[in-house]
């Protein structure tokens, strides 16, 4: 993101599905981590959408998609359930009801539905036809199956707010994607981006987010600042202190010594990898005996140190990308 030289940290990161293996690269200057090769497996995403009810990390989304239908204020429910939706709700507090809002990468569609129930003119967009068909079936005709890059070429200046929750980390070219979204903004509009937050982890942690190719990037706050500045955006971050006061986070203080700590989720045949199998796979990739022994000793010491955090940072970043005055003049 910053243009500086990055370092190869590991060539043995297990992928989301066996037997895939990826390289993990870190930039010491801006804190960006990324996976190589940067590939998109559309078949894997379709599998995830169809099986979200049984996949770790996705089961809660399937639950949200059903629960919002019985809630009088679905957005308030989502905000109480997860920090990322609380942040979206805070941003929308000052947005007039007549504003047009586009959620890019809407997946199962429940957030678009929740926003529309607040009275906004909301549209959900996803590249997955199966996801859009299910969202339309559950919530109504407010969804669009389209590719953002293609849409931006013929639907310019259409939206006041564009929301991307947990999208950019999936993409080989997040900069190009946000540039395309910028083409859809009306004058005075902005983009809300959320993504897993590398800033709260120790530099030695290799990859504490979904394994590639589901996630190809792991961004820090500094990453997003460089990304925004590169495109002429002013970037500001949501402070989660208010939310964290009510919902403090507890997580282990862990060092990984640049060794894999996450294994595959799926076997090659599509069955789930259980926890014991995952531990064995990770251990197999920690080949260097001395490094492995040190890793074990260090984590036995720090694992007991659960950290309760009530500060402004969480495990997710929420950033508002506002086009600079110079760019807005050209819109």
Give the secondary structure arrangement, pairings included.
Elements (H helix, E strand, L loop, with lengths): L6 E8 L6 E6 L6 E4 L5 H9 L8 H9 L6 H8 L1 H10 L7 E5 L5 H8 L3 E6 L2 H11 L3 E3 L2 H5 L6 E7 L8 H9 L2 E12 L20 E2 L2 H11 L1 E5 L3 H6 L2 E4 L22 H11 L3 H14 L3 E4 L6 E8 L1 H6 L1
Helix pairs in contact: 3-4, 3-5
How would you describe this protein?
The protein is an alpha/beta fold and 331 residues long. It has a domain at 41-237 and 315-330: Rossmann fold, CATH 3.40.50.150. It has 13 helices and 13 strands. The protein has helices at 42-50, 59-67, 74-81, 83-92, 110-117, 129-139, 148-152, 174-182, 221-231, 241-246, 275-285, 289-302, 325-330, and strands at residues 7-14, 21-26, 33-36, 100-104, 121-126, 143-145, 159-165, 185-196, 217-218, 233-237, 249-252, 306-309, 316-323. A 7-stranded mixed sheet has the order 6-5-4-7-8-13-10, with helices on both faces. A hairpin with a 6-residue loop joins strand 1 and strand 2. Helix 3 (74-81) crosses helix 4 and helix 3 (74-81) crosses helix 5 (110-117). The chain is globular. The model is unreliable at 300-308 (pLDDT under 50).
Q: Which range does the strand content fall in?
A: 15-25%
How large is the radius of gyration? 20 Å
Structural class: alpha/beta
Q: For the report, how would you describe the main beta sheet?
A: 7 strands, mixed
Estimate the mean pLDDT confidence: 87
| Overall geometric form | globular
What is the CATH T-level topology of the domain at 41-237 and 315-330?
A: Rossmann fold
The CATH class name of the domain at 41-237 and 315-330 reads Alpha Beta
**How many separate helices?**
13
Oligomer: single chain
Pattern of helices and strands: EEEHHHHEHEHEHEHEEHEHEHHEEH
The second-level CATH architecture of the domain at 41-237 and 315-330 is 3-Layer(aba) Sandwich
Strand order of the largest sheet: 6-5-4-7-8-13-10
Say which CATH homologous superfamily of the domain at 41-237 and 315-330 is assigned. Vaccinia Virus protein VP39
Head-to-tail CA distance between termini: 25 Å
């Amino acid at each position: 993101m910053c243009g500086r030289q990055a370092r190869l940290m590991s060539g043995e990161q297990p992928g989301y599905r066996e037997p895939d293996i990826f390289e993990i690269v870190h930039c010491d200057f801006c804190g960006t981590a990324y996976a190589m090769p940067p590939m998109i497996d559309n078949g894997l995403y379709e599998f995830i959408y169809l099986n979200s009810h049984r996949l770790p990390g996705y089961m809660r989304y399937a639950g949200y998609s059903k629960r919002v239908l019985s809630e009088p204020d679905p957005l308030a429910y989502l905000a109480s359930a997860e920090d990322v939706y609380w942040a979206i709700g805070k941003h929308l507090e000052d947005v007039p009801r007549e504003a047009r809002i586009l959620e890019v990468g809407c997946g199962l569609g429940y957030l678009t539905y929740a926003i529309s129930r607040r009275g906004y003119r909301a549209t959900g967009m996803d590249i997955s036809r199966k996801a859009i068909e299910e969202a339309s079936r559950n919530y109504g005709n407010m969804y669009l199956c389209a590719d953002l890059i293609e849409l931006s070429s013929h639907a310019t200046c259409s939206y006041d707010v564009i929301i991307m929750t947990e999208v950019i980390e999936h993409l080989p070219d997040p900069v190009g994607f946000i540039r395309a979204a910028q083409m859809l903004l009306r004058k005075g509009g902005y983009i809300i981006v959320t993504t897993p937050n590398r800033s709260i982890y120790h530099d030695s942690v290799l990859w504490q987010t979904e394994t590639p190719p589901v996630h190809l990037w792991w961004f820090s706050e500094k990453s997003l600042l460089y990304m925004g500045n590169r495109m002429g955006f002013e970037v500001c971050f949501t402070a989660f202190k208010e939310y964290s006061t009510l919902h403090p986070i507890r997580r282990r203080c862990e060092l990984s010594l640049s060794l894999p700590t996450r294994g595959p989720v799926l076997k090659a045949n599509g069955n789930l990898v259980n926890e014991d199998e995952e531990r064995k796979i990770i251990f197999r990739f920690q080949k260097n005996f001395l490094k492995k022994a040190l890793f074990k000793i260090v984590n036995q010491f720090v694992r007991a140190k659960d950290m309760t955090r009530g500060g402004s940072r969480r495990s997710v970043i929420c950033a508002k990308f506002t086009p600079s005055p110079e760019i807005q003049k050209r819109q």
